[in-house]
Amino acid sequence: MMGLMASEETRTADTRTAMTPTERGTSARTSDTTPGAGRSRAWATRLVVVGIVLSALNLRPAITSLGALLEEVRDGLGMSGSVAGVLTSVPPLCFAVFGVTAPRLARRFGPAAVVCAGMAAITAGLIIRPYVGSTAGFLAASALALMGIAVSNVLMPVIVKRWFPDRVGSMTGLYSMALAVGTSLAAAVTVPLTDAMGGDWQAGLAVWATIAAAAVLPWLPLLRDRGTTAARPQEPAPGTAEPAAPLRIARSRTAWALAVFFGLQATAAYITMGWMPQIFRDAGVPAGTAGVLLAVTMVMGVPLAFVIPRVATRLPHQGPIVLVLGVCGLAGYAGLYLAPAGGAWAWALLLGVSNCAFPLALTMVGMRARSGPGVAQLSAFAQSTGYLISIPGPLLIGVLYQQSGGWGLPIALMAALMVPQMAVGFLAGRDRTVEEEATR
């Protein structure tokens, strides 16, 4: 991994060597040359890397740990089935509602400060919600944690763009890989941890607050040094100065294509997480094996989440990657329809590859805008709009399953949604920026 990142640094150094004397002089004047400043900046950069990794680890356990213990939570709080159904739809709704506020907060307080506050909100929500003793309080505390996740979701690409403009692929891959690890880890170990603590579901949920609290720490020195040289991110390249006024992001076709692509891939991911084990169980696969198959699908995102962003940043057009991932998804759905039990492991692997459209979408957010504020606006627009689009999907699958009495129609809908996902993803992958389109 470090070797891959070093190769990007080498290419950056080669580019700097190719500068004219005037450009090298300008570059030297825009950077600090004292050894003390260089060491401080190096430590600040390391803190940012640690902060990105720890923050990414905490962006899904609040959701997947609850899914693992949902039956125990319902019994403990006397929660009705309809309220539990609403609870499973709260994450994308919160991501859409709160994520749109992230750019404004970042302009006022700085991205690092907002992410730090987001990690603190996750910590507080995870500690409070198991012990409030009521369904309303549980929902409110969950919303607090999801608010922290929402703003951090939006600002992670912004921080990557500002601090690592020449390593967007590597850092987005590292962030996406950590997010996949956190997702899979919480789903896999929440129940064993709860059993080890005497079957106390409250402790089993609250334990994840410890990792969230650890994620607050790397951002604290960056808050203190936010205005100093040590904490200053890399300067934008010539011609990419940050705009003084917000973009009219809704005027950009690329922004809309990326938002719809993000929404459709999120729809597929939530359907997979929520319904794939049931599809396998209804086909005769044992419950334990069905859970392992879902874990396999999720774990596929760990290595591919690092590889795909690096490949994407080396291509002028990311559309071919979108098509490859979409074909894998279509093949996986076809397998679920024709032989769900016979080729279960193959279908789980194919759908795991298809779900890696998420790190690709994050990478394209960083590539389709030139400046930090542009990335912030595009990230907020794409994620907020996308998560709104994703809300009805899992619910519609459940309705079709209940009405039809089988998985034929739901799987057909999943496959049908993959076609527009491929189309809009291909459009979003074109080599252009939202600043160009929004100012035409």
Walk me through what this model shows.
This protein has 23 helices and no strands. The chain is an all-alpha fold and 440 residues long. The relative contact order is 0.13.
Short description:
The chain has 440 residues and is mainly alpha-helical.
Write down the overall geometry.
Answer: globular
Q: In percent terms, what proportion of residues is strand?
A: under 5%
Average pLDDT number = 82
Going by helix content, strand content and strand pairing, the class is mainly alpha
What order do the helices and strands follow?
HHHHHHHHHHHHHHHHHHHHHHH
Q: How many extended strands?
A: 0
Radius of gyration: 22 Å
Sheet with most strands = none
Helical content band:
over 70%
Q: Ranges with pLDDT <50 over ≥5 residues?
A: 1-33, 225-244
The rounded distance between the terminal residues' Cα atoms is 40 Å
Provide a count of the helices: 23
Defining traits:
mainly alpha, 23 helices
Topology:
Blueprint lengths: L1 H16 L3 H9 L5 H23 L3 H8 L1 H8 L3 H19 L2 H8 L1 H18 L6 H29 L4 H29 L4 H6 L2 H8 L2 H6 L28 H30 L4 H13 L1 H13 L5 H20 L5 H11 L2 H11 L4 H19 L1 H13 L3 H21 L5 H5 L2
